Amino acid sequence: MGRIAYVNGAFERHGDAVVHIEDRGYQLADAVYEVWALFDGKLADPEGHFARLERSLSELRIDMPMSRAALTVVLREAVRRNRVKEGLVYLQVSRGVAPRDHAFPTDPTPPSVVITVKGVDRAATEAKAAKGVSVITTPENRWGRCDIKTVGLLPNALAKQAAREKGAAEAWFVDELGFVTEGASSNAWIVDRDGTLRTRDTNANILRGVTRHTLLDLIRDQGLKVDERPFTPAQALAASEAFITGAGSLVLPVVAVDGKPVGDGKVGPVAKRLRSLYIERARATAI
To answer: In this predicted model, what pLDDT tens digit does every residue of 144-197 receive, in sequence order?
Structure first.
């Protein structure tokens, strides 16, 4: 069975699905998106993703295309039609189709909705996590509202490509003060030598990662110390461990930054434990 996409009320074969050439998401990046991890065919971290979607839409003054309950039904149907148990669901909502103009359409314009689903090889991702990944650093050059999950991701795409060309899995943006903000598609973490977990606070123009939020709850439940405070690349290299979080990466250990080892250059026990705890929680609470 081929992949199935949802586009504006209809399920279509993935290869046949299209959007209008004057969709504002296509022409102006006037759109937001969300990505859910799928465990056993269910949506992980549902409340966090729906809440962030609603916030992003509100910040851009785009109407919610349907109720949360209705959207949940459509998302689940997309998963069912694609017969995916372990994977990712991508949702994009744009302001809709209108003659190209930078200002908002003056006529009522229904939002455009696109949903795609793809499978993930969990065995392969676990093998990757067991080995750990490397990251590179790159100057922060994104806009001032990275807290909104928009599709305007060109700086992220360029950073990710630079990482790939250097054999790395991710790029960490570094601000003008020399601190890591976040990854191109993830939040960044370190474990200090005293065992304190450190990650950038969400008031610092970074995305309010849903996986990050769930992990913070787990960390506190485990009685571990966490400090929402920035760190530099040098501090990451001096840390005992580092890792990234996101719907696609889950909790993924980082063993090198800019070609230099983090700590002893091996996957550490804290990241390994937190990955296991996160996956256990995500499976138990998925809907």
So the answer is: 999 999 999 999 999 999 999 999 999 999 999 999 999 999 999 999 999 999
Q: What share of the chain is helix, strand, coil (3-state, %, to 5)?
A: 35, 30, 40
For the question of residue 272 being annotated catalytic, the response is no
Distance from C-alpha of 283 to C-alpha of 273, rounded to nearest angstrom: 16
Distance from C-alpha of 249 to C-alpha of 174, rounded to nearest angstrom? 20
Residue tagged active-site, from 85, 128, 131, 149: 149
Residue 70: phi and psi, rounded to 5, are -65, -40
Secondary structure of 9-51 as H, E, C letters: CEEEEHHHCCCCCCEHHHHHCCEEEEEEEEECCEECCHHHHHH
Segment (H or E) for 84:
none
User: pTM for the complete prediction?
Assistant: 0.95
> How many Å apart are CA 229 and CA 222, to the nearest integer?
20
Structure tokens given for 30: 């006037």
